[in-house]
Design brief:
heterodimer; A: mainly beta; 0% helix; 53% strand; B: 112 residues; mainly beta; seven-stranded mixed beta sheet
């Protein structure tokens, strides 16, 4: 079956530090990969996505590249801000099927 | 567009009580789903629907009922609440065949 393994948290960084949150997956078929973000007290919002191998998703300074050879979709940001403090979820979906498989989430805290 | 709305935002129940969590969307999405979010567990799918009159079980359906009489609404019923159902519940929707899901703000439920 499909599964997503996500870097354990919590992660605490200083402002302007470089961020990496690891995500690896196992899947049958042709998965699309997503990063969702959940700000305190809110629902999940789509942060970025990639639908095929070697695609790079990007949004708000975050990037992730779909690596089929390593079955990974790591989230990166060059310089984090306090406003990036949130829980980040990696997720996998298979083409033609609406269901998503989520990782356990990584809580990120940025200190000034 | 209001997107996906959920009511109530917070709820406290006693063991054995019943209640309905409301979810509505105004994007004409065919697919709707309910997740629960628990610490260290990520999001787990409870029930889903691919259209009015069609529902199916997800990963953790026990203790929950759903119905889908209209495209817009997808209520989740707890028939006899148990402390194990203390969680944050999210409703999500998407177009058929599309993985990108739109989430509501969530309902935080405590069962005493």
């Amino acid at each position: 079956g499909n599964s997503v393994t996500q870097m354990e948290g919590p992660v605490t960084l200083s402002e302007e530090a470089f961020l990496t949150i690891n995500c690896t997956y196992t899947a049958t078929g042709y998965p699309s990969l997503f990063w969702y973000v959940q700000y305190p007290g809110e629902g999940l919002q789509l942060l970025l996505k990639a639908t095929k191998a070697d695609d790079k998703g990007s949004n708000k300074g975050f990037e992730a590249t779909y690596r089929k050879e390593t079955t990974s979709f790591h989230l990166e940001k060059g310089s984090v801000q306090v406003s990036d403090s949130a829980v980040y979820f990696c997720a996998l979906g298979v083409f033609g099927n609406e269901k998503l498989t989520f990782g356990t989430g990584t809580r990120l805290t940025i200190i000034p | 567009n209001a997107g996906v709305t959920q009511t109530p935002k917070f709820q406290v129940l006693k063991t054995g009580q019943s209640m309905t969590l409301q979810c509505a969307q105004d994007m004409n999405h065919e697919y709707m789903s309910w997740y629960r979010q628990d610490p260290g567990m990520g999001l787990r799918l409870i029930h889903y629907s691919v259209g009015a009159g069609i529902t199916d079980q997800g990963e953790v359906p026990n203790g929950y009922n759903v119905s889908r009489s209209t495209t817009e609404d997808f209520p989740l019923r707890l028939l006899s609440a148990a402390p194990s159902q203390t969680s944050v519940y999210f409703c999500a929707s998407s177009w058929r065949g599309r993985n990108e899901q739109f989430f509501g703000p969530g309902t935080r439920l405590t069962v005493l």
